[in-house]
Amino acid sequence: MYPMQGGDDKLESLWRAYRAACPDREPSANFMPGLWRRIESRRNFTFSFQRMVRGFVTVTAAVAIAIGVYVSLPRATPVTTVSYLEALADANALDTPEIVGPVRLDWNESGR
Amino acid sequence: MLVEFELVRRAQHGDSEAFNNIVLAYRKRIMGTIGRLIARTEDVEDVAQEVFLRLYFSLDQLRAPEVFEPWLYRLTVNAAYDYLRKQRRRPEFRMSDLSEQQVMMADAAAGGKVEHDEQQQKKLRETVDSLLGAVSEADRVLLLMKEVEGLSLRELEKIYRVKENALKVRLFRARQRVLKAFETAEQKKQNG
Question: Is A64 inside any structural domain?
Fold first, then answer.
């Protein structure tokens, strides 16, 4: 699979030497306290963030409910007690001259 | 496994002492791996803490304690990769990147003639770091996990969740690139 066998051997030796040059290291005494500090800090951040999100969700839900209630409430418009026909009749009163005015017949002219 | 499955289960259920014991068992090994992956000794502890931090907050996603080690290695690989990407900002590998001294060091290492004093080892780390500049951060991590950490393809398959054949191809290409960089640097030294 590898055309350059000599090159591969070189690389193998290089990796071996590199591994020897990077031995496993002992962690410092500060490793565990440092790790727990980071965990606590992340946990606090996550907690604060969650609290903020929860607060935001609560406020949003409250506003949505308030808007829903406001929209569903009947409007404070003047109460109409008259029916449609009555309103129509009011608008076109029977004494409107052009509709209900007496028919005038001029007998003299027609008898001519 | 360096720890019992039961310890992993307890840690998954929020037992801080169990988690502490897991960290104590694995931290030296993980720091060693990170040291070889990033080649910067001063940042090893910081990256290792990041690995265990991620472990702490993702333990509940672990399906079964039996796959704990590949999981931990996956977190290690990701943390090292993230670190290298942040650190990158380095340009593509150029043949002139290796100094003559580094080429000599690489030659000596390839011939198994590196002395064990700290200065020499530091130079060797820098040389390999420069050679690995010939490949991407992802390939660098993969190559080192295979060649230096000695993980098998099957283990890498579990860590990367990628088919063995795809890994083989990727490894082959990365190896060829590093080899080419090495040989070009050698040629340059011979000519100059």
Answer: yes
Rounded Cα–Cα distance for residues B40 and A107 (Å)? 125
Please tell me the CATH code under which domain B1-89 is placed: 1.10.1740.10
CA dist B9 and B176 (Å) reads 43
Task: Please indicate if any CB of chain A lies within 8 Å of the CB of B169.
Answer: no
- Say whether B178 and A11 touch across the interface (CB within 8 A): yes
Instruction: Report how far apart, in Å, the C-alpha atoms of B135 and of each of A88, B94, B138, B144 are.
Output: 88, 11, 8, 11
Tell me the residue range of the domain where A57 lies.
30-72
Task: Please indicate, yes or no, if residue A14 is contained in any of the structural domains.
Answer: no
One-letter identity of residue B77: V
CA B75 – CA B55 distance, rounded (Å): 7
Q: E strands along chain B, which residues?
A: none
Average pLDDT over residues B21-34: 95
Do the chains contact at B49 and A22, CB–CB below 8 Å?
A: no
Mean pLDDT along residues B37-56: 93
| Both structure tokens of B134 | 């010939």
Any chain A CB within 8 A of the CB of B26? Answer: no
- The residue among B146, B113, B134 whose CA lies nearest residue B179 is B134
Domain boundaries along the sequence of chain B: 1-89, 93-192
Is residue A53 a part of any domain in this protein? yes
Average the pLDDT over A70-89 and give the result.
76
Summarize the confidence of residues A89-101 as an average pLDDT.
Answer: 65
pLDDT of residue B175: 93
Tell me whether residue A77 is in a domain. Answer: no
